[in-house]
Amino acid sequence: MIRQLADQGFAVIDAFLPATQLHALQQSAQRILAAQAKPAGIGRGPLRELDSTVRQDHIVWLEVEDQCSAGFLDCMERLRQQLNQQLYLGLFSYEAHFACYQPGAFYRKHLDAFKGERNRRLSTVFYLNAEWQPQAGGELMIYHADGTSVAASVTPLENRLVLFMSEEFPHEVLPATRQRLSIAGWFRGA
Ligand code: OGA
Ligand code: MN
Fold it and tell me: Per CATH, the architecture of 2-39+53-188 is what?
């Protein structure tokens, strides 16, 4: 993972969590999303708005009060320390939300952070989809900085973690034929 990130600015890691932790997290995600999911917005603070022509996922932010969410956040905290030690990324904090894309839902090409605003440094996406078939679609397309040449097409397979530098890689979520669940998160700089 460290080598992939250092060499290409993104990484795809499979079998990220132990099976028991994965299964518990999948159940928590289903339960929490079913009870609390809200349409995701675009932008932050007072300029935040809803725009279903850009993104159609429904989200709930992870809170430590849920034990499975806390376990996932612990893992990401260990990852943060390891990335800082080995790649000097200066990552300071982490936030993440569960996301549910219903069949046909998408998130158009976007950047998670804009250069200069020293906020989101490293994006993470962890997939919760058991028995995902490639024909179902729903790929995360990661583009090079030019915004058109494809750096990676990632199938949202269960227990797969994707990391990419937030300011460098435009990316999009393609529509799928089934419901698509993930945890999207961001490490921030100081
Ligand atoms: C995001 C995002 C990618 C995915 O939430 O900003 O790009 O594969 N998610 O779910
Ligand atoms: Mn994104």
Answer: Sandwich (2.60)
Q: Tell me which amino acid residue 150 is.
A: V
Q: Which residues on adjacent β-strands are paired with residue 163?
A: 11, 124
62 Cβ inside 6 Å of ligand 1: no
Residue 101 phi, psi (nearest 5): -105, 120
Distance 84 CA to ligand 1 centre (A): 23
pLDDT tens string 63-78 = 999 999 999 999 999 9
Q: Mind listing the pLDDT tens digit for each residue in 86-133? A: 999 999 999 999 999 999 999 999 999 876 666 899 999 999 999 999
Contact between residue 156 and residue 14 where contact means Cβ atoms under 8 Å apart: no
- Cα(15) to centroid(ligand 1), Å: 19
Q: How far apart are CA 48 and CA 42, in angstroms?
A: 5
